[in-house]
Amino acid sequence: MLLTTVGAHAADTTLQEFVVTTTRLPEPRIDVPASVGLVDAAEVRLVGATHYSETVNRIPGVYVQRGGGQESLVAVRSPVLTGAGACGAFLAAEDGLAIRPVGFCNVNDLFEVNTEQADAIEVLRGPGPAIYGASAVHGIINIRTPAVAQMPRLGLALEGGPDVYRRAKFAAGAQRRDTGFGAYGHYTHDGGFRDDSGVDEAKLNLLYDDVDLAGGTLRVRAAGTWLEQESAGYIRGFESYKDEAIVQTNDDREAFRDAWSARGSAAWSRSACGGCADDLRFVVRRSQMDFLQHFLIGKPLEENAQGSVMASASMRRPLGEAWTWGAGLDLEASDSWLRETQDGPSTDGPPAANAIRPAGKHYDYRVDGRTAGAFATLGWRPDSHWALNAALRIERTRYDYDNRMIAGNSDENGVPCGAAGCLYSRPADRVDDFDNVAPKFDVMYTPGERHRFYASWSRGFRPPEQTELYRLQRQQDIADLDSERLQGGEIGWRASLGDFEWSLAAFALDKRNVIVRDSSGFNVNGGETTHRGVEYELQWQASPQWRASAAGSVAWHRFAFSAAVEGGETITAGNDVDTAPRSVHAVRIGWSPTTTLDAELEVLYVGRYWLDASNAHEYAGHTLLNLRASWAPAPAWRLTLRALNLADTAYADRADFAFGQYRYFPGRGRAAFIEVAWQAGAE
C-alpha cells in the first residue's frame, strides 16, 4: 500500500513474520514446517516493480524470466518451464484462492493479479499442503491483499521513467467501527525499450471487511485487470543481446496480447474455541485473452475465455490435549472455450511447413470442467518440543469436451493438406476424468525459542491442461494422458542468534508422468525428471542503520529418461533440463540512517544454464546491480528513486536455442524511475 514510512526494514524480524499460505490462518513463519518465502509490504513498496519478476525473484528457489511486455516464464524449485502445461505446475492465488480454474491456466496469468500494490507476496516452494489441490506441484505464488484497517484515508503516487514510462497509483480506505471499505489500483503505460513493444494496463481492487459477523470475520474482495500489449519477440544470433543495434529491434511488430479479468470473492473465518478454526470461501472468476501467436508459422490468432466458480469449507478442532484434526471440501465448476484462426495462407516458413498450416480455423472447442476435492489432517504435539502432522487429499477432475469443428486432421472444411496431412488435429467430443491422491507428512523439532528443525514429505499433482488434451497435432486423434505428479521431501533449519537470522532447506523431488510432445508430434506421458538442491536465506542487522541479507539456491534439475522429442531434439537421461541455472543468488545491503531515509543496493546473480535438452548450447549467465532509495521529506510525502541495471550490463532475460538458432529476450539497459507519493493524514 501507499505509505510514507521508510526505514521499516531496520526493525524487521523476518522469521517472526506471519504467513497464511500453508493453512489459510496466520502463523509465524518460523513455525511452518515448509519453505515459505515472503516479500512484505515494505519491500513491495521499495521495489516498485515494473514487472512482478523483480519482486518474487527476491525469494530463494524462485526464478522468473521476463518475456515481452508483461509476459513471463516461471521456475519455483524447478527449471524454467515452458509449453502448454508449464503454468499448471504452479498455483497462482490471491488470498489463497486460485485465480484460474483447474486445467485452464496461462503461463502469463500472474498479470491478472495486482502484485504491484500487494500487502505481501508469499511463495511456498515444493508441493502444496492438502488444503490446495491441482497445480500446487512445484509451488504456490499467493498474493495477499491488505485489510482495510491498513489502508490510508487517501494515498496517491505518480511515477516516471525511460521510454515514456508512466504510472499512477491510488489507495483509499474508510473504517467505521468494525466495518471497512477500501479501494486501490493503478494505471501504467510503458512505451517499451524495443520497437513497437508498448504496454498499457490497469488494475483495480475493492475491499470490504467486517470483523464481527456471526462471531467471525468476513472479507469481501473484488478485482479487475485490463491489458493491451504490443509484444516483442526473440532476437536471434549468438549473444545478440550484446549488440545494441539488435537489442532494440522487434521482428514481430504486428504481435499483440489483449486481456482482461474480473474476480469476486468472500471469505469468512472464526475461532470458536482454543485450537478451533472454521473457514468458508467462495470465488467467481472471469477472464478473456486474445493474442497473436507470432512465434508460430502462419501467426494464427488465439482467443480464449473462462468463467468459473469455486466454493470451499474447512474446519479444525482439538482432539484432547495433544491432538488436532481437520477436514475440508472444495468444489469448482468452469466453462471455458478456445478458438484459433489463421487469416491467410502460411508464407513465412519453408514450403513443406507452410503446406500443413491452412488458413481459417484450426481449433474451436468448449470445455465444461468440474473438480471436487476433500482433505483430512491430523496433528500431534506430544510435548513442547515436537509436532507431527499428516494430511491426505483426494481429488477428481472431469472435462466435458465439445468440439465445434469437423473432427480429425484437416482444414476447417474437412479438406486434407496433402499427403503429409494438416498440422492441426481435433479430437471428437469426449469426457475425461482424472483422480488423484496427495498425502503429506511433516515433523518439527523445537529445541529452543530461536531454533526450528523440520522434515517433510509430500506429493503434488496436476491433471493435463485442456490444451494438452484437445489441441492435438498431426495424426493424433486421442491424447491418453494421466496427471503429472511430483513427490519427495525436504529438511530445513530456521534460527536466529542475536541480530542474525537464517533459514536453510535441502530438497529431493522426483517428477513422473511428465507430458511431452514426442518426435511424431503426439502429446504423451512418460517423461521423468529429478530435482535436488539447497536453498538459503540469511539476514543480519549489523546496526540500527545497516542491514545485510543474502538469498539463493544451488540446484540440479535433470532428465531421468531418454527420448526423441519434437523438433528433432533428443533427451538423454542424466542431462540437465534446459533453462535450469544451477546457481541463483542475491545479496542486498540496506542503509537507514534515519526514519525518513531507506536505501538498498542489490546484486543479482544468475548462473550459466543449458539452452537445449542435448546440453550442447549454453547461456553464460549474468550479474545485475540495482539501487533503490526512498526519502520522506515530510510526513505526508515520499520520494523514491529506483536505478535498475546500474552497471548497464548486457544480458538476456531469457535465452534458448531452437530451430538451429540462439534466441533471446534481451534485458533492459540502465534505467532510472522516480516516484512521488502523497498520503493524507500522515503524522
Tally of separate helices: 5
Secondary-structure content class: mainly beta
Note the overall shape.
globular
Radius of gyration: 25 Å
Mind telling me which CATH architecture this is? Answer: Beta Barrel
- What's the count of strands? 40
Q: Any idea of the CATH class?
A: Mainly Beta
The helix fraction, in percent, is under 10%
Model regions low in confidence, pLDDT < 50 over at least 5 residues: 3-12
Q: How many angstroms separate the termini?
A: 16 Å
Number of domains: 1
Any key phrases for this structure?
56% strand; mainly beta; five-stranded mixed beta sheet; 5 helices; Maltoporin, Chain A; globular; disordered N terminus; 683 residues; 22-stranded antiparallel β-barrel
Write structural notes for this entry:
It is built from five helices and 40 strands. Helix content is 4%, strand content 56%. The chain has one domain: Beta Barrel (Maltoporin, Chain A), CATH 2.40.170. The strands form eight sheets. It has a 22-stranded antiparallel beta barrel. A five-stranded mixed beta sheet has the order 3-8-9-6-7. The protein has a three-stranded antiparallel beta sheet with strand order 15-39-38, with no helix packed on it. With 683 residues, the chain is mainly beta. It is globular, with a radius of gyration of 25 Å. β38 and β39 form a beta hairpin.
